[in-house]
Amino acid sequence: MTSRRVLVLVLAAGVAGCAFAGRGSGPDPETRLHLGLTALAEQDLLTAQEHLEWVVRAHPTEDVGTRALLALIAAELDPRNPTRSLWTAADLAAQLLHAPETPDWTRPIGHTLYLVALELGANEDRIARTEAALDSAGLPDFNGLSVPAQLRAAQEERDRLQRQVDALQQQIASTRKELEEKTAELERVRKTVKG
Predict the structure, then answer these.
(1) Is 36:11 a contact under the CB 8 Å cutoff?
(2) Please, which contacts does 115-122 make with residues 24 or more away whose CB atoms are closer than 8 Å?
(3) What is the pLDDT of residues 147-183, one digit of tens each?
(4) Which DSSP string do the residues of the chain spell out, in sequence order?
(5) Cα distance between residue 30 and residue 38, in whole Å
(6) Taking burial as the number of CB atoms within 10 A of a residue's CB, which of 25, 30, 90, 162 is the most buried?
(7) pLDDT tens string 68-106
């Protein structure tokens, strides 16, 4: 079992940890949370998203809303999710971290989920989606490398050339040592022949 899958299972177990309790009229958030988690476990992502987002919107400052938000972040990071959005996962984790009413126990989880989203490529995902949106707006295309990409390429080329120079310097030093040894041996032979 992969560490990501374990993380999702741990989050789902933590989110599902509360008992169901009806609170007055209207949909019960605990029931909606349970329905969302059940749908998530069955990979019915649209249904899961519908229930979990409702809980987050309707109860953003309550524990049930926090648990639903954690489940949504996990769903967006889940590699089994064919429509996963790493930048959405990062945004949701940032929302969790910036909410003043967020319980302290969720902050380390929020930090980790945010960093995992970035490590997996949330920024690149966001850039690609932004570029796609701009392309559809009829703006001109830029097919070249951006300045940061050019700088990264130049640095990689510099590092490659430095490795090549280091290897050549080692080869020169080895050849020089070998030449000195052969010269010394030749001089010794010459002295022996003259002597």
Answers:
(1) no
(2) 116/4, 116/77, 117/76, 117/77, 117/86, 117/87, 117/89, 117/90, 117/93, 118/90, 120/77, 120/86, 121/86, 122/86, 122/87, 122/89, 122/90
(3) 878 888 999 999 999 999 999 999 999 999 999 999 9
(4) --HHHHHHHHHHHHHTTSPP---SSS--HHHHHHHHHHHHHTT-HHHHHHHHHHHHHH-TTSHHHHHHHHHHHHHHH-TT-TT--HHHHHHHHHHHHH-TT--GGGHHHHHHHHHHHHHHTHHHHHHHHHHHHHHHTTPPP--S--HHHHHHHHHHHHHHHHHHHHHHHHHHHHHHHHHHHHHHHHHHHHHHHH-
(5) 12
(6) 90
(7) 999 999 999 999 898 888 999 999 999 999 988 889 999
pTM (predicted TM-score): 0.56
3-state secondary structure 81-96: CCCCCHHHHHHHHHHH
Nearest to 132 by CA among 76, 90, 85: 85
